[in-house]
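ok new one. same drill as before - C-alpha cells go in, u give me an amino acid for every spot. 299 of them this time. try not to just spam alanines like last time pls lmao
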C-alpha cells in the first residue's frame, strides 16, 4: 500500500464513517503528509504498513526542533488516529505511535471577553454599510448561542425555530442539537433577513443559507475572522480574538451567572462533561460562591 492511496482511503473514512467536517479532515491529513514529506526528505523508503516506531520517533525528534510541544502533541495524536484506522482495516497489527510519549502541555484557555468588550465590538459595526446588519446579526447569534464558526456559516433559515425560541445546529460528526436563542438575536436576524438578505441575488444552492456574502453565497471562515479582527482594531482591543473567543465567552458568562455545567455542555454540543470543564475556566470567585451557597455547613 502506498502513502497516497492510504491517505485517500483514510480521508474517505473520516468523512463517511466518522462524519467529520472538511476542515477537520484536512487537519488530520496534514499531519500524515508531514510524515510522508519527512520520509521523502530523508530518502527513506517505508510504506504505511511497514513503518516502525523507530522511524516515527526519528520524525518526531526532527520536527520537535521547529515546533511547540502543543503542535508536537497534535501531530502525534493525528498519526495515532491514522494508524488506528489501518489497524481497523486489517492493514496493520499494531500502532507504531503507541509507545511514543506525548509532550506534556498545560491546558491553554482562549482569551475571554467581558460583556462590555462584546458590547463595544458589536456597537462598532458600521450599520450604514450593506454588510452591517448582517455582521451585527452574526455576532449577536454567536454570543447568544455559543456557536462554532463552522456552525455559524452553515446555519440555515430552515434551522430557525423562533416561535419555540430555539435554533437547530448541526455540529461535529453531523450531530444535531437545539440551542436557545435570545430574543434580541432573533430580532437582529429577522431585520437582516427582511431588510438586507431579501434584496440579494442569491446563487443556486444557497437559498436556505442564512448568512450570505455580497455575491449571494455562504461566507468563509476566514471572512468571519477578518470581520472580528477589524472590529477589534477599531475599538483598540488588545486581545487576540476569534469566533472561538465568543463561544468561550458565552460559556464563561453563563457559568459565572449561575448556569448549570450540564446545561452548558448540552448547548455547546460537547459529548463529555470533561471537555466543558476544561473549556470553561472556573475562577476562584465562582467556586467560592458555589461552596457558600450549597455546602451544608453555614456560617
Amino acid at each position: 500500500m502506498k502513502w497516497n492511496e492510504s491517505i485517500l482511503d483514510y480521508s474517505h473514512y473520516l468523512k463517511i464513517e466518522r462524519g467529520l467536517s472538511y476542515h477537520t479532515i484536512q487537519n488530520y491529513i496534514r499531519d500524515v503528509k508531514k510524515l510522508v514529506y519527512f520520509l521523502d526528505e530523508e530518502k527513506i523508503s517505508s510504506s504505511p504498513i511497514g513503518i516502525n516506531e523507530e522511524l516515527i520517533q526519528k520524525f518526531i525528534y526532527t520536527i520537535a526542533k521547529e515546533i511547540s510541544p502543543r503542535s508536537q502533541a497534535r501531530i502525534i495524536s493525528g498519526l495515532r488516529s491514522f494508524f488506528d484506522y489501518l489497524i481497523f482495516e486489517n492493514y496493520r497489527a499494531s500502532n507504531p505511535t503507541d509507545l511514543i510519549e506525548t509532550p506534556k502541555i498545560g491546558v491553554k484557555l482562549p482569551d475571554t471577553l467581558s460583556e462590555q468588550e462584546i458590547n463595544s465590538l458589536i456597537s462598532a459595526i458600521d450599520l450604514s454599510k450593506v454588510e452591517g446588519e448582517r455582521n451585527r446579526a452574526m455576532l449577536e447569534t454567536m454570543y447568544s448561542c455559543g456557536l462554532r464558526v463552522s456552525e455559524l456559516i452553515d446555519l440555515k433559515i430552515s434551522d430557525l425555530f423562533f416561535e419555540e425560541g430555539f435554533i437547530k445546529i448541526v455540529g461535529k460528526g453531523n450531530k444535531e442539537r437545539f440551542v436557545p436563542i435570545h430574543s434580541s438575536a432573533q430580532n437582529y436576524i429577522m431585520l437582516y433577513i427582511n431588510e438586507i438578505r431579501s434584496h440579494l441575488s442569491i446563487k443556486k444552492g444557497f437559498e436556505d443559507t442564512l448568512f450570505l456574502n455580497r455575491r449571494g453565497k455562504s461566507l468563509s471562515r476566514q471572512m468571519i475572522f477578518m470581520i472580528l479582527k477589524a472590529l477589534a482594531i477599531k475599538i483598540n482591543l488588545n486581545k487576540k480574538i476569534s469566533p472561538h473567543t465568543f463561544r468561550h465567552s458565552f460559556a464563561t458568562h453563563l457559568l459565572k451567572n449561575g448556569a448549570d455545567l450540564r446545561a452548558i455542555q448540552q448547548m455547546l454540543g460537547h459529548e463529555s462533561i470533561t471537555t466543558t470543564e476544561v473549556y470553561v475556566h472556573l475562577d476562584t470567585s465562582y467556586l467560592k460562591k458555589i461552596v457558600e451557597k450549597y455546602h451544608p455547613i453555614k456560617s
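The mean pLDDT is 87. and btw The two ends are 70 Å apart (CA to CA).
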